[in-house]
Fold:
Amino acid sequence: MTEAAFAYTTPTDALVAKFAGSVAIESHGQSVVHVEKSSLADVVEYLRVSEEFTMCLDVTAVDHLQDVERAQIPGIKRERFEVVVNLISHPRNIRIRLITQVPESDPSVPTLTSSFSGTSFPEREVYDMFGITFDGHPDLTRILMPDEWVGHPLRKDDAPARVPVTFKGDPGPR
Amino acid sequence: MSLTEEELTMQITGDSSGTDSLDDVAEDVVEQSVIAPDLKRLSRQTGEGSQELRPLQEIVIAGGPWPELEGDGQTMIINMGPQHPSTHGVLRMMMELDGETVVRAKPVIGYLHTGMEKTGEELTYVQGATNVTRMDYVSPLSNELVFATAVEQLLDVEVPERAIWMRMMLVELNRISSHLLFQATNGMDMGAVNMMLYGWREREEVLRVLEIITGLRMNHNFIRPGGLAADLPDGWQEAVLGVCEQVEAGIADYDKLLTENPIWQSRTVGVGVITTEQCMALSITGPILRSTGFPWDLRKTQPYLAYDQVDFDVIYTDNGDCYDRYRIRLFEVLESVKIVRQCVAKMPGGDYRVQDKKITPPPRARIDESMEALIHHFKLFTEGFRVPPGETYARIESPRGEIGCYLVSDGTGKPVRMHVRGPSFYNLQAISPMMEGRMVADAVAIISTCDPIMGEVDR
Structure:
């Protein structure tokens, strides 16, 4: 538990110093770092190898298409989608959240499965629900919806009850 | 990865007794309670030879797309589930078998997907608790607590002391009922059908107490943003303390029935082994992580509510097999009973929710005499309240591991995104490495001791 073993006081400082375009903020007492989409996998790998982050707790995404009010962060160009990664370091007992902006025109981010194989399920879920692809994922298929499903349900422009209820296999008038 | 155990233990144990091996835990428990099982017995090896249990007959239902066969054609791919008594709902396992040995296994999920995260975006923050409580239907209060915590973080609201202790007592009672359900279904899956009846019996007593307090057996919608729905009813102490004794007597029975049972041991010891490194890589939390010798429990390591003011131990073992996962859940019940007793003794007075007219409804009597109270009541239950823009991730230790709620607000009355990190969803990833090289009969034990709740997996 010697902090001197690390080159920087906190992992957020390290990320801001090492990866261009990273912006560190604090959100309700939790440390959050906005990182570039292209460097997301490198940031996670760096945190795992050099900063003792031992587990990737969660990978999820947000669709900001219809936001009424959205906080602006200096140095960050806000895009439609955000991919959110929650990491924890058990030996240091700290958490960090990485957020990366994903444009609607190119909804893809590098996969994190090479650093943490447990991100396989949540990345498939994000792909299924938002249509964001994870480049290099070994098995990027739908996980919750049926394979033949069209659309991505958690996108804001994918309206609920868009598919009408029918009984086409049922004999008789309908 | 430098995870030295001493460092962690130092970090985790706040007091001198602290987190320690099962033997030391045993001494504490035995001192406190006469009817608690004699835990010292557990570390002793029996002199009796073990007896091989006849493998249960598997019911295999084939269907769905069949992947291409690997190898020399000697292997066979079968489906287990989604309609299978041992899959705890609608889990489907695809298994490639070589004879009776599982070569590889893949969980296929989504059969219970009902779009609850999408629904959460359509509901106000007041209504949101009714939605999340139906995710992990075996421990609904954990879901409500994590959602309420996230909303309170965004609102920047502190709940009163009594609400904190009430929440802690309710969540621990819920942990007891959840682990009792595990004991019941786990026993049934491995052929101890009487265990199912015993487990349900004690769980029903706990649910009866929850019904006295919250009004419902399950899906309580009792922990709400800003506090709780109601105060504790008259006579709650007797009900809670009474059920504590019943649960301890029940645990003593299960311990006598199973723990040293040679059939039970030959069915579980050394089956479905997983290591700490695998757990770390696969994001596995909760009893499965603790069974690998890694004493990580958010109640100790990153305390929330008032867990730093109560005395309890983190149970952990070293082998990472089905037997250890069974034992950990058995003894965690006793730790929860300890916490519940302390909650009863230390329950502070005061209000059970914040008195903020914009967040919590006015008392019923005020509505008759005050126009403002009527307006606030009406606005709260039609439009809900507005939450400042922002994002937060709240997390607590549910009976199955870390449950998290990632909440994004844009300043309106409904969340932009309400994501729940269900521990079962991640824990399911452990099934594949646990099953490889084991028998089909062991697959049932492995699924069962992972304790997945499909409502939380599929959401």
Observations:
- Chain A has one domain: 3-135.
- Chain A touches chain B through 46 residues (CB under 8 Å).
- Helices of chain A lie at 11-18, 40-50, 120-130.
